């Protein structure tokens, strides 16, 4: 399995992916799931992929040469697209092309066509954009209300993203949040694993130098892994235990009157047989 997250902020974009794939408990491999398409000064795009590895690898290769009829006589590619919307249309076309080639054979073998991708970046003077692409090649775009996308094992790392991220979040803080989200996922799911690929893109740069591969020996991620768990424990222990009396000894009593009925209770007498 995998876990990838892409974040769109006013200040830029953050992308993070793990690299573990597995086909059973004794068949674990490492494959990169982040691909960067860059022409400095002109365009910068990042693709994160999850799902069937053979499908995502085929899409990544085809995407570099995929041509989409744009009705202008000049085929549309990710390298001549004038907007991220057109670029993600090319990606959707590449996904459908792989489906046409491999979908029937996969179905015959009992394998679902399973692939989902995060695609984001910036072209020319256009604003940054971030998309979530589905197995059918269709896609949705991130908004200010929903400024991040996840693919793969998303549930474990979602709470911290929901609590911390807004469009105004600084890039370094968002990168920290993404790493905490990844650490939470690593803690709870063995199908996600190191090394990680982290990329931070500054708005209007049209290039990126802030990219790093994070392994077991990375000092910053070691600090995240140790301090996050400790701080959570400290916060948890600082919360008052529930109080079941009505003495008023606490400002946050648990046992209070409620307009709803209490749960139904079956009371039996000694010797009564319940059928």
Helical content class: 25-40%
- Beta content comes to 15-25%
Lateral strand order in the biggest sheet: 10-1-2-11-12
Mean pLDDT: 92
The count of β-strands is 12
Describe the model.
There is one protein chain. With about 280 residues, the protein is α+β, with helices and mostly antiparallel strands. The chain has a single domain (about 5-230), classed as Aminohydrolase, N-terminal nucleophile (Ntn) domain (Glutamine Phosphoribosylpyrophosphate, subunit 1, domain 1). It has helices at about 55-65, 85-110, 160-165, 170-190, 220-240, and strands spanning about 5-10, 10-15, 20, 30, 35-40, 45-50, 115-125, 130-135, 140, 150, 195-200, 210-215. A 5-stranded antiparallel β-sheet has the order 10-1-2-11-12, covered by helices on one side. The mean pLDDT is about 90.
Task: Give a topology summary.
Layout: E1 3-8, E2 12-17, E3 20-22, E4 28-30, E5 34-39, E6 43-51, H1 53-63, H2 84-108, E7 115-123, E8 129-133, E9 139-141, E10 148-152, H3 158-164, H4 171-188, E11 196-202, E12 210-214, H5 219-238
Antiparallel strand pairs: 1-2, 1-10, 2-11, 3-4, 5-6, 6-7, 7-8, 8-9, 11-12
Helix pairs in contact: 1-2, 3-4, 4-5
Report a brief summary of the structure.
The protein is an alpha+beta fold and 275 residues long. It contains five helices and twelve strands.
Give keywords:
275 residues; alpha+beta; Glutamine Phosphoribosylpyrophosphate, subunit 1, domain 1; 5-stranded antiparallel beta sheet; globular
